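User: My instructor asked us to take a sequence, write out its structure as tokens, and then describe one feature of it. I'm not sure where to start. Here is the sequence I was given:
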Amino acid sequence: MSIALACYNLSKSYGPTTALQHLDLQLEENVIYGLLGRNGAGKTTLLDTIAGAIAAESGTIEVQGKRLSKREHPEDFCYVRSQFRHFGGARVMEALQIAATFYPRWDWTFARELLNIFLVDQDKKIRQFSSGTQSLIGNIIGLASRASLTLYDEPVLGLDVLMRERFYKALMEDYANYPRTILLSTHLIDEIAPVAEHIFILESGTLLLQDHMEQIRKSAYLLRGNAEAMASFTEGKRVIYQEAYGRGLLAAIYEPLTDADMLHVRKLDLSIEPLSLQKLFLYLIEGGL
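Assistant: Let's start with the prediction itself. The structure tokens for your sequence are:
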């Protein structure tokens, strides 16, 4: 597949704090990506850098093979920030009319449909809404723009579970009909698992893990059992976390397992279960890997 966007060796610091550290990242065309990380991991800095809102201290960004200059944003691009605070004194429809002028693929029929789905009064001023509803207005713009590269920074921040589900449903249905490259940055980890096709886990400005979601499902496991048996099974495997568990050990591994591996687990009398994306994230962070 073609590369929609590539970041090479990106670094950015704020005083003594390193936000991005020699980061490499590639986004293929027509794939939904999940960008996961704790607060302060560097997620927003990465998105701001891609969007040209801030300049990296080193490194390069390429879009469709074209190198961007510092603080240059990509073409046919939409960046939805965690809180939509633009045009606060404008009414919703006025804000959408302004936004539509920036996006050649803007779909007015879809935008009006989204206003109904998210129960947004198009005649009210944006500043009259709660922060959650303001986020929805940004999400409407991101969806209706149909930009070939769309970045969302915490798109469901402040939304209740119903509106979060409606957002993901609208995103997936529209993506199926109009594929594009989408990067969703979020801390609501398990919610992104059914949506994202590829996952990036960011910590302290570096990538701890990047893999296809399907591969993650096949590789992330939690084992419990006797310490000696655990050592025998995990030798040579990628152990991302380990701790004492009663009289035995608990170990999280990231390794595709064969039928022979599963037979070995049963012979050693170890318990094994798949790891959720959230648990994988937690064990990666706790394990310092």
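For the description part of your assignment, you could build on this observation: Residues 161-177 form the longest helix (17 residues). Try explaining in your own words what that tells you about the chain.
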